[in-house]
Amino acid sequence: MVEKLYVTYNDVHKLCQESAIPILSEFKPDLMIAIGGGGYVPARILRSFLKQPGSPNIPIQAIGLSLYEQLPNAADQVVEQVGHKVTRTQWLDLTALGSMKNLVGKRILIVDEVDDTRTTLEYAVKELQKDVEEVRAKLGVDEKTEFGIFVLHNKDKQKRGTLPEDVTNGRYWAARTVGDEWICYPWEAIDIDEHDANAAAALAKKSQA
Ligand SMILES: O=P(O)(O)OC[C@H]1O[C@H](OP(=O)(O)OP(=O)(O)O)[C@H](O)[C@@H]1O
Ligand SMILES: Nc1nc2[nH]cnc2c(=O)[nH]1
């Protein structure tokens, strides 16, 4: 059976808080692009910790990508299974002038909650790089855009997707590296009290071990 790791809202908050320190000192993003749905909450929390006195909040743009499908299993329970194709459910509006300019010559932090097989992040980086090239050609500007990645959890496993080396070597922040377990995030919980109780029970078990 796949082990489950229960993560509470407070855990998410604290993971963002501690990750903001290296992200600020090593990258200082101009813009975040949150991959929905799981990247939205971490991006919003992180924004508070990236805010510098006297500077405006870092803007958050959203893209919607979906790889995991909810499928009924033999026992008729709904389980999440990895799909084979990344589906775009939402993308940047490149016709908006402000959003176009935001992409060129900027440091862009892509935010998601989990790097599992890396398929989603590979897709996001490749497609965003294409967009940047398109916008750069259109605007006739030559400034370089740098992408960084922040995830709450990176699973230490064989990845299906790959990321550019300049991202993995220096612009990739995972608050926690975990095994190949299924992570249960609080925003997916139907019963948040039960979810928190599961998280507390796992913590108690760990401290007794
Ligand atoms: O590394 P990967 O194997 O690509 O998996 C990671 C992706 O899976 C989840 O998305 P999901 O498709 O479940 O959509 P959701 O965020 O809307 O739940 C998660 O939010 C990541 O985007
Ligand atoms: N909730 C959740 N979504 C995922 N998508 C890919 N891996 C995971 C995981 O471990 N937990």
UniProtKB/TrEMBL annotation:
SUPFAM superfamilies: PRTase-like. Keywords: Coiled coil, Glycosyltransferase, Transferase. InterPro entries: PRTase-like, PRTase_dom. GO terms for molecular function: hypoxanthine phosphoribosyltransferase activity. GO terms for cellular component: cytoplasm. It comes from the Eukaryota. The keyword Transferase applies. Residues 118-145 form a coiled coil. The keyword Coiled coil applies. GO terms for biological process: GMP salvage; hypoxanthine metabolic process; IMP salvage; XMP salvage. This is Podospora anserina S mat+ genomic DNA chromosome 4, supercontig 4. The lineage of its organism: Eukaryota, Fungi, Dikarya, Ascomycota, Pezizomycotina.
